[in-house]
# Entry
Amino acid sequence: MKFFKKISLTVFAAILFIALVSFSAQQYFNLKFSEEALNKHFQNLTVIKQIAEKSNMAHQEVLFISASVDSLQKDIIDQVRRQQAQQPAPPASKK
# Structure
């Protein structure tokens, strides 16, 4: 009986350790693009989505591609808006 409790405790501790470690490895990256490059990539994503929608792929695959592109474009827009909101306003010119 003691052996079973010891094994159960060890297994529980291992599962708890794995659960705690699996959520701590998140990193954030800041990528910088010129406005021209960002617009080009955004348009390319739109074209990829249109090509997928016109293809002969299975419906579920097209939905996945469309949702992925939409999510990426939404994240791009959110990042740009956040960065624009953080930038200080240019000083007013004095006449």
